[in-house]
Write a structure and sequence with these properties.
Number of helices of chain A: 5
Distance between the termini of chain A: 87 Å
Strand order of the largest sheet of chain B: 5-4-3-12-13-14
Shape of chain A: elongated
Helix content of chain B: 25-40%
Number of strands of chain B: 14
Strand content of chain B: 15-25%
Structural class of chain B: alpha/beta
Distance between the termini of chain B: 50 Å
Largest sheet of chain A: none
Oligomer: heterodimer
Number of strands of chain A: 0
Largest sheet of chain B: 6 strands, mixed
Number of helices of chain B: 7
Radius of gyration of chain A: 26 Å
């Protein structure tokens, strides 16, 4: 047992003696070979576009400017002092345009395809459409 | 006890004490050998840190006219005077965004950028800015690049690595293209050297309803996962705020323009009129001292009453 403790002690002293550089080589042994890669925040491909997912994304990406109800009454004033346009009074033929604006952005509106995948973009479109009540008749 | 005996169905492993000690010794020798080899490999890329002092200015909002600060140029001049009086003098100044207040016309914005540069030139120190949304969101950073310089870049001073990032010009995110650039730069960087990320918005969710966040912050910080001493200096929030995690420390610099309220109620972000009796209330700058050990210490200098608050990053 004494020898075992001695061996552990030797290992601990060796570890300390090696210093942070060598310790980093142990904690990240393949760092020399692993190239850091850029990975966008992605919803798994198996997830289908949905207004529910869009609602969650809306809170994180859109609510500050367009407001929790999508009426343009946001919590954050735009740099030019103006308000973001309301999203709750869109015309019936605006689905394609809405998709295009979310993907590419317009004016100070970000192009969200930089950080969102097609499933997420489509989900946002579905949610924003849900803010617009369907007209009867 | 004669040895360690482990039994599972069909498998019988027996190791004597002598064998265990031999294996422990072999493992230690291998560890020492690999460590020496890797230390040499690291030594070629790892710069030595020498003591360094620099200043963080933030949110100067040149060109703003209104009740939140009735003398924006005057406040900046007072801040620059504080910098001139520092002993020891700083080696350079970083500015974490919103150098200027947004304006409708390009000519007005250009004039504001020029005014900012003229003011900073009086320091005779290198200046490393990053864009804020007021500087770059209007036109996705086009005018900023012409008048000030690149939206993101990397530099090194005294063994400290700096990544100046843009998380505002296309929205409150870094984005895929810039993250790929970071990945390429990281491959040439030293993960053991002190590393500072300069951004305008915080790289964590400080308060999402006021856009005090970066949408893809986790993905950005994941790129730096092997870095041991990572510090994020940001602006945008016009107050002392921050977050200290196990691998990264983030903290906001003071503004020279106006203070903003603490995030609390879910209400529209509003600034309040400047105090007549204490016009510099909540305004200031910070001095960062890097020791040769790589440890960073921050002194927040408040213009009001020339108060000083110190903290370690």
């Amino acid at each position: 047992m004494r020898k075992l403790l001695w061996a552990v002690g030797v290992a601990a002293v060796t570890w300390g003696f090696l210093g942070p550089h060598a310790q980093a080589a142990f904690t990240h042994p393949f760092r020399f070979f692993k190239r850091p890669h850029s990975e966008a925040p992605r919803t798994p491909p198996s997830v289908q576009p949905s207004a529910a997912l869009g609602a969650r994304l809306y809170v994180r990406a859109c609510e500050s400017c367009h407001g929790p109800r999508g009426n343009g009454e946001g919590f954050w004033p735009l740099p030019d002092g103006e308000s973001a346009p309301p999203l709750d009074s869109l015309g019936p033929s605006s689905q394609a345009a809405l998709h295009q604006i979310i993907v590419q952005g317009k004016g100070m509106m970000p192009g969200w395809s930089q950080v969102m995948n097609p499933t997420e973009i489509r989900s946002l479109v579905l949610y924003v459409q849900s803010l617009n009540p369907r007209k009867k008749g | 006890m004669e040895g360690i005996r482990t039994e599972t169905p069909g498998v019988c492993l027996q190791m004597s004490r002598r064998e265990l000690l031999r294996q422990a010794a072999t493992a230690s020798a291998l560890a020492a050998g690999w460590g020496m080899v890797s230390r040499r490999a690291f030594a070629q890329s790892g710069p030595q840190v020498r003591p360094l002092r620099f200043v963080q200015l933030s949110d100067t909002h040149i060109g703003y006219q209104g009740e939140a600060n009735r003398d924006i140029p005057g406040t900046l001049r007072r801040a620059l005077n504080v910098i001139r009086g520092l002993d020891p003098a700083p080696e350079f100044v970083v500015v974490t965004g919103d150098l200027t207040q947004a304006a409708e016309s390009g000519a007005a914005r250009l004039k504001r950028f020029r005014t900012f540069r003229e003011q900073m030139d009086t320091l005779h120190l290198p200046v490393y800015p990053v864009p804020g949304e007021h500087d770059a969101l209007m036109d996705r950073g086009q005018l900023y690049q012409k008048a000030v310089g690149p939206l993101h870049y990397r530099f090194e001073r005294a063994g400290v690595q700096f990544f100046a990032l843009d998380n505002v010009s296309r929205g409150f995110f870094v984005g895929d293209a810039q993250r790929q650039w970071i990945g390429r730069e990281i491959a040439r960087a030293d993960p053991l050297a002190p590393t500072v990320l300069l951004t305008h918005a915080p790289l964590y969710d400080l308060f999402v309803p006021w856009n005090w966040y970066t949408y893809d912050a986790k993905e950005v910080l994941a790129l730096f996962s092997g870095f041991r001493r990572l510090t994020v200096l940001f602006g945008h929030v016009h107050q002392l705020a921050g977050q200290r995690g196990p691998s990264v420390s983030q903290s906001a610099g003071l503004s020279t323009a106006w203070p903003l309220p603490e995030p609390d109620a879910l209400a529209r972000l509003e600034k309040w009129p400047q105090s007549a009796s204490d016009p510099d209330m909540g305004l200031g700058l910070r001095v960062i001292d890097v020791a040769s050990s790589g440890q960073m210490a921050v002194s927040n200098l408040l213009l009001s009453h020339e108060k000083q608050e110190e903290a370690a990053l």
